[in-house]
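S1.2 Input.
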Amino acid sequence: MQESMYSALFGALNQEHRLDIIANNLANANTNGYKTDQLAFKDVFVNYAHDNIREPTLNLRSDPLFPSPVNMAKPRIAVSRTDFSQGPLQQTDNALDLAIAGDGFFKIRTDNGDFYSRDGAFTLNNEGLVVNGRGQFLLGDGGPVAIPPGASSVVIDSQGQIFADNLLVDTIQKVTVDNLDGLEKLGANMFRPRAQGAVVEQPAEDAEIQQGFLEKPNVEVVLEMVNMIETQRAFEAYQKTITTSQEVDLKAIQQVGTSR
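S1.3 Output.
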C-alpha cells in the first residue's frame, strides 16, 4: 500500500474529529457560559535509519555512502483545548441571574464533589437554597448559598456579597486556577482538574459578579460554519486521495508482470 493511503487516512480521521468538535460548539451556541473547544495540531517527523548517520568522507569528491537524510512531516492532533475567553453579557434583570466579568468561576456542589462553572442561571429551590438548572448548589463562604425565607429583595454586589433585605447573608465564592489548561470539561457545562494537583485554586480577586446578567457562549457561529465547510472539503479531498491511491495499487497489481 502506498504511503499516500496512510497519510490520507490519518488526515481524514483528523478532519472527522475536528468536525465533531465544531458540531458540538454549534450545538451549544445558546448555552449560557459555554466555552468553545479548539484543536491544536503538531508535526510528527518520521526519521529513516540513515538520517542520523554521519558518514565518513575521504575528500570532497568522494561518492556518498548513504542516501541523503530525509525527514517526513505528518500533521497529527496534538490536543484539544478550551477557549476560556469572555463571552458577551446579556441583561435579564433577574435577581438570581449572575455573570462573572473576567477570569473566574462559580463553585458548584454536586453529588460527586465540587466543580467549576461559568453558567450563572440560578433559582431558589423549596428549601431556599440557590441552585442551577440541575438542582446543584451554588457555594458561598458558608457552604451552599441560602436566601432567608420571605426576603423581599436580594442584592448581590460585584464582589459577590449577598444582601437579603439589606442584611449580609453570605458571599459567593468566585475562584480561578493557576493553569486553565489544567481543566477539562466534565459535562453539564462544568469543569474539573484533569488530574489531582493539576491546578491550584485561588480567589478570583479581579473578577466581578454582575447581577441580572448572563454570560452567553463565546461561540462565533459564522466562523464555526466556515470551519465546518472547510473541514468537509478537506475530508472530501482525503477521500479522493484514498480512492486514487487504491486505483493506482490495483492497476499495478493487475499490470505489473503481465506478459506482452
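S1.4 Remarks. The chain has two domains: 3-32+220-255, 89-215.
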